[in-house]
Design brief:
alpha+beta, Arc Repressor Mutant, subunit A, 268 residues, Beta-Lactamase, 7-stranded antiparallel sheet
Length: 268
Protein backbone atom coordinates (compact mmCIF):
# COMPACT_ATOMS: atom_id res chain seq x y z
CA UNK A 1 0.00 0.00 0.00
CA UNK A 2 1.30 3.45 -0.94
CA UNK A 3 2.25 5.60 2.06
CA UNK A 4 0.49 8.94 2.43
CA UNK A 5 3.22 11.50 3.15
CA UNK A 6 0.86 14.47 3.05
CA UNK A 7 0.45 14.76 6.86
CA UNK A 8 4.14 15.68 7.02
CA UNK A 9 3.45 18.94 5.17
CA UNK A 10 1.24 20.14 8.02
CA UNK A 11 3.46 18.76 10.77
CA UNK A 12 6.53 20.38 9.23
CA UNK A 13 4.76 23.72 8.96
CA UNK A 14 3.96 23.60 12.69
CA UNK A 15 7.51 22.55 13.56
CA UNK A 16 9.07 25.32 11.48
CA UNK A 17 6.79 28.12 12.65
CA UNK A 18 5.99 27.16 16.24
CA UNK A 19 7.83 24.20 17.76
CA UNK A 20 11.42 25.29 17.09
CA UNK A 21 10.73 28.85 18.27
CA UNK A 22 9.23 27.96 21.66
CA UNK A 23 11.88 27.58 24.35
CA UNK A 24 10.03 25.99 27.28
CA UNK A 25 7.71 22.98 27.40
CA UNK A 26 4.96 22.39 29.94
CA UNK A 27 1.51 20.81 30.18
CA UNK A 28 -1.53 23.05 30.05
CA UNK A 29 -2.44 23.70 33.68
CA UNK A 30 -6.15 24.42 33.56
CA UNK A 31 -7.13 21.44 31.43
CA UNK A 32 -9.77 20.07 33.83
CA UNK A 33 -11.81 23.29 33.78
CA UNK A 34 -11.41 23.63 30.02
CA UNK A 35 -12.54 20.03 29.46
CA UNK A 36 -15.73 20.70 31.43
CA UNK A 37 -16.46 23.75 29.26
CA UNK A 38 -15.64 21.89 26.04
CA UNK A 39 -18.01 19.06 26.96
CA UNK A 40 -20.86 21.58 27.06
CA UNK A 41 -20.09 23.04 23.64
CA UNK A 42 -19.34 19.85 21.67
CA UNK A 43 -22.68 18.12 21.18
CA UNK A 44 -23.28 15.47 18.53
CA UNK A 45 -20.54 13.93 16.42
CA UNK A 46 -17.60 15.90 17.79
CA UNK A 47 -14.23 15.33 19.39
CA UNK A 48 -11.73 17.80 20.77
CA UNK A 49 -8.16 17.90 21.98
CA UNK A 50 -5.59 20.14 23.65
CA UNK A 51 -2.40 20.27 21.58
CA UNK A 52 1.05 21.18 22.90
CA UNK A 53 2.72 23.04 20.02
CA UNK A 54 6.19 22.79 21.56
CA UNK A 55 6.19 18.99 21.44
CA UNK A 56 3.29 18.46 19.00
CA UNK A 57 1.85 15.99 21.49
CA UNK A 58 -1.73 15.84 22.75
CA UNK A 59 -2.23 16.83 26.39
CA UNK A 60 -5.85 15.63 26.32
CA UNK A 61 -8.29 14.19 23.78
CA UNK A 62 -11.98 13.46 24.30
CA UNK A 63 -13.08 9.78 24.35
CA UNK A 64 -15.49 10.51 21.47
CA UNK A 65 -12.54 10.45 19.05
CA UNK A 66 -12.74 6.65 18.97
CA UNK A 67 -16.33 6.66 17.73
CA UNK A 68 -15.56 9.20 15.00
CA UNK A 69 -12.05 8.27 13.85
CA UNK A 70 -11.84 4.67 15.07
CA UNK A 71 -8.68 5.39 17.10
CA UNK A 72 -8.58 4.67 20.86
CA UNK A 73 -7.81 7.92 22.76
CA UNK A 74 -4.62 6.52 24.26
CA UNK A 75 -3.27 5.78 20.76
CA UNK A 76 -4.08 9.12 19.14
CA UNK A 77 -1.29 11.26 17.69
CA UNK A 78 -1.47 14.24 15.36
CA UNK A 79 -0.02 12.07 12.60
CA UNK A 80 -2.75 9.45 13.02
CA UNK A 81 -5.49 12.09 12.96
CA UNK A 82 -4.05 13.72 9.85
CA UNK A 83 -3.92 10.36 8.12
CA UNK A 84 -7.74 10.42 8.16
CA UNK A 85 -7.84 13.60 6.06
CA UNK A 86 -8.78 13.20 2.41
CA UNK A 87 -5.52 13.39 0.45
CA UNK A 88 -6.62 16.19 -1.87
CA UNK A 89 -7.35 18.40 1.15
CA UNK A 90 -3.79 18.81 2.43
CA UNK A 91 -2.72 21.71 0.23
CA UNK A 92 -5.94 23.54 1.13
CA UNK A 93 -5.27 22.94 4.82
CA UNK A 94 -1.68 24.17 4.47
CA UNK A 95 -2.91 27.40 2.87
CA UNK A 96 -5.39 27.81 5.72
CA UNK A 97 -2.61 27.30 8.29
CA UNK A 98 -0.49 29.94 6.52
CA UNK A 99 -3.42 32.38 6.49
CA UNK A 100 -4.11 31.72 10.18
CA UNK A 101 -0.48 32.36 11.10
CA UNK A 102 -0.47 35.56 9.06
CA UNK A 103 -3.62 36.78 10.82
CA UNK A 104 -2.36 36.12 14.35
CA UNK A 105 1.26 37.19 14.01
CA UNK A 106 1.30 39.93 11.36
CA UNK A 107 -2.18 41.47 11.19
CA UNK A 108 -3.48 41.16 14.76
CA UNK A 109 -2.13 43.19 17.72
CA UNK A 110 -0.37 40.87 20.18
CA UNK A 111 -2.79 41.75 22.94
CA UNK A 112 -5.70 40.31 20.95
CA UNK A 113 -4.24 36.89 20.13
CA UNK A 114 -6.23 35.05 22.81
CA UNK A 115 -9.47 36.81 21.83
CA UNK A 116 -10.20 34.96 18.59
CA UNK A 117 -11.23 31.50 17.47
CA UNK A 118 -10.82 30.21 13.94
CA UNK A 119 -13.29 28.14 11.92
CA UNK A 120 -12.78 26.21 8.71
CA UNK A 121 -13.88 22.97 7.06
CA UNK A 122 -12.12 19.95 5.57
CA UNK A 123 -12.96 16.47 4.32
CA UNK A 124 -11.89 13.23 5.96
CA UNK A 125 -12.33 9.59 4.98
CA UNK A 126 -14.19 7.39 7.46
CA UNK A 127 -13.70 3.70 8.21
CA UNK A 128 -16.11 2.79 5.40
CA UNK A 129 -14.16 4.91 2.88
CA UNK A 130 -16.97 7.49 2.86
CA UNK A 131 -16.12 11.20 2.61
CA UNK A 132 -17.16 13.20 5.68
CA UNK A 133 -17.15 16.99 5.97
CA UNK A 134 -15.71 18.30 9.23
CA UNK A 135 -15.85 21.74 10.82
CA UNK A 136 -12.87 22.83 12.90
CA UNK A 137 -13.07 25.40 15.70
CA UNK A 138 -9.71 26.26 17.24
CA UNK A 139 -8.61 28.73 19.91
CA UNK A 140 -5.18 29.53 21.31
CA UNK A 141 -5.42 29.00 25.06
CA UNK A 142 -1.83 29.69 26.17
CA UNK A 143 1.08 31.69 24.79
CA UNK A 144 4.79 31.12 25.20
CA UNK A 145 7.23 33.75 26.42
CA UNK A 146 7.94 34.40 22.75
CA UNK A 147 4.23 35.30 22.22
CA UNK A 148 3.69 32.16 20.16
CA UNK A 149 0.83 29.68 20.59
CA UNK A 150 1.93 27.11 23.16
CA UNK A 151 -1.37 25.30 23.66
CA UNK A 152 -4.51 25.24 21.53
CA UNK A 153 -7.90 23.62 21.89
CA UNK A 154 -9.40 22.26 18.69
CA UNK A 155 -12.96 20.95 18.22
CA UNK A 156 -13.79 18.83 15.16
CA UNK A 157 -17.47 18.34 14.33
CA UNK A 158 -18.94 16.12 11.63
CA UNK A 159 -21.29 18.34 9.60
CA UNK A 160 -21.86 15.88 6.74
CA UNK A 161 -25.60 15.89 7.47
CA UNK A 162 -25.72 19.51 6.28
CA UNK A 163 -24.67 18.32 2.80
CA UNK A 164 -22.09 21.05 2.21
CA UNK A 165 -18.58 20.73 0.81
CA UNK A 166 -15.33 21.84 2.40
CA UNK A 167 -14.17 25.26 1.20
CA UNK A 168 -11.00 27.35 1.01
CA UNK A 169 -12.35 29.87 3.52
CA UNK A 170 -11.37 30.61 7.13
CA UNK A 171 -13.33 32.73 9.61
CA UNK A 172 -11.81 34.57 12.56
CA UNK A 173 -14.44 35.08 15.27
CA UNK A 174 -13.90 37.46 18.18
CA UNK A 175 -14.88 35.70 21.40
CA UNK A 176 -16.30 38.86 23.01
CA UNK A 177 -18.39 40.04 20.08
CA UNK A 178 -15.96 42.60 18.69
CA UNK A 179 -14.66 42.76 15.11
CA UNK A 180 -14.78 39.37 13.34
CA UNK A 181 -13.64 38.41 9.85
CA UNK A 182 -15.90 35.96 8.03
CA UNK A 183 -15.18 33.59 5.14
CA UNK A 184 -11.72 34.88 4.27
CA UNK A 185 -10.27 33.17 1.19
CA UNK A 186 -7.03 31.34 2.07
CA UNK A 187 -5.77 30.48 -1.42
CA UNK A 188 -2.96 33.05 -1.25
CA UNK A 189 -1.79 31.86 2.19
CA UNK A 190 -2.02 35.47 3.45
CA UNK A 191 -4.67 37.22 5.52
CA UNK A 192 -6.43 40.20 3.94
CA UNK A 193 -9.53 41.58 5.70
CA UNK A 194 -11.07 42.51 2.35
CA UNK A 195 -10.54 39.04 0.90
CA UNK A 196 -13.93 37.67 1.97
CA UNK A 197 -15.99 35.56 -0.40
CA UNK A 198 -19.17 37.01 1.08
CA UNK A 199 -20.83 39.19 -1.54
CA UNK A 200 -21.97 41.58 1.18
CA UNK A 201 -19.29 42.22 3.79
CA UNK A 202 -20.19 41.75 7.48
CA UNK A 203 -23.78 40.75 6.65
CA UNK A 204 -23.69 38.06 9.33
CA UNK A 205 -23.47 40.73 12.04
CA UNK A 206 -26.76 42.22 10.73
CA UNK A 207 -28.78 39.01 10.99
CA UNK A 208 -31.61 39.13 13.54
CA UNK A 209 -32.39 36.45 16.12
CA UNK A 210 -35.43 35.30 14.13
CA UNK A 211 -33.43 35.16 10.90
CA UNK A 212 -30.83 33.00 12.65
CA UNK A 213 -33.62 30.62 13.67
CA UNK A 214 -34.81 30.45 10.05
CA UNK A 215 -31.25 29.69 8.86
CA UNK A 216 -30.88 26.90 11.43
CA UNK A 217 -34.05 25.26 10.14
CA UNK A 218 -33.03 25.72 6.50
CA UNK A 219 -29.77 23.92 7.32
CA UNK A 220 -31.85 20.92 8.41
CA UNK A 221 -33.53 20.86 5.02
CA UNK A 222 -36.90 21.94 6.37
CA UNK A 223 -39.49 23.54 4.08
CA UNK A 224 -41.06 26.97 4.47
CA UNK A 225 -44.31 25.34 5.67
CA UNK A 226 -42.50 23.18 8.25
CA UNK A 227 -40.50 26.15 9.56
CA UNK A 228 -43.70 28.17 9.88
CA UNK A 229 -45.33 25.42 11.94
CA UNK A 230 -42.30 24.97 14.17
CA UNK A 231 -41.93 28.70 14.87
CA UNK A 232 -45.69 29.34 15.10
CA UNK A 233 -45.63 31.99 12.39
CA UNK A 234 -47.21 32.17 8.94
CA UNK A 235 -45.59 30.77 5.81
CA UNK A 236 -45.66 34.29 4.34
CA UNK A 237 -43.65 35.57 7.31
CA UNK A 238 -41.06 32.83 6.74
CA UNK A 239 -40.88 33.81 3.06
CA UNK A 240 -40.32 37.44 4.07
CA UNK A 241 -37.49 36.42 6.41
CA UNK A 242 -35.94 34.32 3.64
CA UNK A 243 -36.06 37.26 1.22
CA UNK A 244 -34.43 39.52 3.83
CA UNK A 245 -31.71 36.93 4.50
CA UNK A 246 -31.03 36.65 0.75
CA UNK A 247 -30.78 40.43 0.42
CA UNK A 248 -28.42 40.72 3.38
CA UNK A 249 -26.16 37.80 2.44
CA UNK A 250 -26.11 38.06 -1.34
CA UNK A 251 -26.16 34.26 -1.43
CA UNK A 252 -27.57 32.96 -4.70
CA UNK A 253 -29.10 29.80 -3.18
CA UNK A 254 -29.64 27.98 0.10
CA UNK A 255 -26.52 25.80 -0.24
CA UNK A 256 -24.31 28.87 -0.64
CA UNK A 257 -26.02 30.53 2.33
CA UNK A 258 -25.57 27.49 4.58
CA UNK A 259 -21.91 27.14 3.59
CA UNK A 260 -21.22 30.77 4.52
CA UNK A 261 -23.05 30.39 7.83
CA UNK A 262 -21.15 27.23 8.77
CA UNK A 263 -17.78 28.91 8.25
CA UNK A 264 -18.99 31.86 10.30
CA UNK A 265 -19.87 29.60 13.22
CA UNK A 266 -23.62 30.28 13.00
CA UNK A 267 -24.47 26.64 12.29
CA UNK A 268 -23.11 23.54 14.04
Amino acid sequence: METNNQPATIINFWKENYTKNIALDDTFRNSEQLIKIANIFTPGASYYYILNLKTLTIDYISPSVEKILGIPPEEVTMEKMLEKVQECEFQKILKKEQTIQDFFFRFLPKGDILSYKIIFTYNRVDQSEQIKTMMVQTSIIALSEEILPKHIISIHTDISHLKVKSTNEVSFIHLDGEKSYYNICSQSGCFCPNNSIDKKKDWIECITKREKEIIQHLAKGESTKTIANLLHISAETVKTHRRNIALKSGASNTVELISQCINAGMIV
